[in-house]
Automatic annotation (TrEMBL):
Gene symbol of the encoding locus: LOC115975359
Organism name: Quercus lobata
Coiled-coil annotated spans: none
Pathway entry: Protein modification; protein ubiquitination
Alphabetical list of SMART domains matching this protein: FBOX
Protein name as catalogued: F-box domain-containing protein
């Protein structure tokens, strides 16, 4: 497998710097240096052990290692090495768009706290619907809804998936992708909503599923919802397709304005009508986002005021247990204030144990570690705000070199 890696060499941005590395060699004499130059690491370590050592390096360091010599390049690109690295998990990176029209952005690696400049293929921008799973990122064109790409942003390998014509005519849509780690096949799930001509309260909701192994689309569900429509937040978690729905009952409606529906991808069944799977959200929400963290369904959202649900008074994180939401954390006020221009819109996404939260109004990135229950700012992003109405958004993905669409 060959990769394009222009982001590794000349576009790596190290905010902290690497001062002090050369100083560790100052105590060596000239004879020591000559002697050390004679002995290569390959002559000391067997190939299998060298492969395991390289597999534990950060992704960017693995690419650099492949440039050290011909043998290391062969090891890093070998089938056995890719098998070894496939069993190891990587902390998710966060890709940030500098603006709505840019396909070149910056990706943050939380392990070594660095930002990398990365260009996405096919001019994909934040205007596209975006979903990720196990190293693959799925993009669906927001304007025509006729283009869908699945790619690995690290290796730059991608493929185009033809969209079914029936899925192009809708008002709202959500996109999710799920990768089977053992077979490397992937499933794309799209939920679309279209209003009925005669009744603005009723919406036609349908689910469309693409299987990479069969290379075909299925449309197993079409249902008319009364008082609810689909949106853009959805995710596949443990074989179940979850998506948020939104009330269409107008401003006078005092009930819960958001809910959760589900569809079992494994059995191709919702267990009856989709609306029968309805689970209310834990409180009035804005910018609700679903994510799969270690096969657990997690919800992140702005906590709206009871009398003014569109106004954020905080940000919460919940995990679904059965049919009940359990609150995991609320963003401390000092972090909430730290976004500066934080208003009622923000982006959030996550993977593994890490949740990323970003304000649309500033290139600030906050992380929450689900395992450690710890809030932390990322290193300062190289993106600068050039004008007052500049908007920022992004998505998280698992950096992997062992998987391709």
């Amino acid at each position: 497998m060959e990769w394009e890696t222009p982001w590794v060499d000349d576009k790596v941005i190290d905010i902290k710097g690497e001062a002090g590395i050369s100083a560790s060699y100052s105590a060596l004499s000239d004879e020591d240096v000559k002697e050390n130059n004679i002995i290569s690491i390959e002559s000391v370590l067997p190939d299998e052990l060298l492969e395991r050592i390289l597999a534990y390096l950060p992704i960017a360091s693995i690419f650099r290692a492949s440039s050290v010599c011909k043998k290391w390049n062969e090891i890093v690109h070998s089938h056995r090495f890719l098998q070894n690295i496939s069993t190891l998990s990587q902390k998710p990176w966060y890709f940030m768009f500098p603006s709505a029209d840019d396909s070149i952005g910056f990706a943050y690696d939380p392990m070594i706290r660095k930002w990398y400049s990365i260009e996405l293929r096919c001019d994909r921008t934040s205007r596209w619907f975006i979903a990720s799973s196990c190293g693959l990122v799925c993009f669906m064109d927001h304007n025509t809804r006729s283009q869908l790409y699945v790619c690995n942003p690290i290796t730059k390998i991608s493929e185009k998936v033809e969209m079914p014509r029936c899925s192009r005519e809708f008002d709202y849509s959500g996109l999710a992708i799920s990768v089977d780690r053992s077979s490397r096949n992937y499933t794309v799930a799209v939920v679309i909503s279209k209003d009925t001509p005669d009744d603005f309260v009723q919406w036609i909701l349908s689910i469309h599923i693409y299987c990479s192994e069969a290379m075909m689309w299925l449309s197993p569900v079409t249902e008319t919802l009364t008082g609810w429509r689909g949106g853009d937040s959805c995710v596949v978690c443990d074989g179940v397709f979850y998506f948020l729905i939104y009330s269409t009952r107008g401003l006078g409606f005092r009930g819960n304005r958001h809910g959760l529906l589900s569809y079992n991808l494994s059995s191709r069944s919702s267990g009856g009508m989709l609306i029968d799977s309805f689970i209310p959200v834990p409180c009035p929400l804005t910018c609700g986002r679903l994510m799969n963290l270690k096969n657990k369904l997690v919800l992140v959202g702005g906590i709206g005021k009871q009398d003014q649900p569109g106004i954020i008074k905080g940000i919460g994180i919940w995990i679904l247990k059965g049919r009940d939401w359990e609150e995991v954390a609320r963003m401390p006020h000092k972090y909430f204030q730290g976004f500066g221009e934080f208003d009622d819109v923000f982006a959030s996404s996550g993977f593994d144990d890490l949740v990323y939260i970003q304000s649309y109004g500033a290139p600030c990135l906050l992380m929450f570690d689900m395992k450690m229950r710890e809030w932390k700012w990322s290193q300062k992003c190289p993106i600068l705000k050039r004008f007052p109405l500049q908007l920022f958004t992004g998505f998280s993905f698992e950096p992997r070199i062992d998987i391709s669409p």
